[in-house]
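Example complex used in Figure S2.
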Amino acid sequence: MDKNLSETIDRVMKDERLSDESDVRVATAPFQAEFPYERAEEAQVTRREFCNFLGLTSAALFIGTGGFAVKAALDARESESFAAAQIAGAEDLAPNSSLNFNYPSEGESAILVKTANGEYHAYGQKCTHLACPVYYSREHQRLECPCHEGAFDVATGNVLYGPPPRALDTIEVQVRDGQVWAMGRKPTGGEHAS
Amino acid sequence: MLVMINIAQLWILAATVDAALARKFSVLLALVIASAVCFLITISILRWWRPVSHRKTSTGYIRTSAKDQ
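Predicted assembly (263 residues):
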């Protein structure tokens, strides 16, 4: 009985002494010589390495935060001047409908809305949530974002509901001799750098 | 703690991006300072808060006998 017990203990202890890697095939193939892969070393990341990695990550995040803030502040200091541009086709726009145009540059899409009572309102078309293009909903008479169901007031550009955190960028509109002109773009939702 | 600081800095970076897009420039400086404080804490942890070695006591004296250990 005692002998069996001691043999069992010996066998268990021997099994525990064996490494998990004992049955791993030895890397002897020719291609394995070019990519020496030490499995035991690969699996182990020392505390020092991990802490150093976290330290470098911390430095990178700090530099990123500072750089982004400086760039945003510098961009805001530059005086933005927008040239007036005629919105082609706006004069023929029916009430309670919209027209897409590009302003102030070709790459920046905007939306002009002629309300049911004949007023013109124009906004940057990027939703302030995740930059999906907003569209004018004739049925609800508001600007809606199709991505996450946000909605904006057509008269002010303010958020009616949904995830967008701030109002749409406003484009100033003037009617001159029956022609509709875009006069400037005003970002909304915050301060302006002096 | 280092992991938590990294997560906090990631959150600060996200807040900075959001503040810049919302043109709330007055909070940018505070966010940068907060990230700098986190970085300084990280540096202090890496530089000074090292584990004590087996041979040295926390005050720097070298242990001489097994009894001391």
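Chain A has four helices and ten strands. The helical segments of chain A are 2-17, 30-34, 39-43, 47-77.
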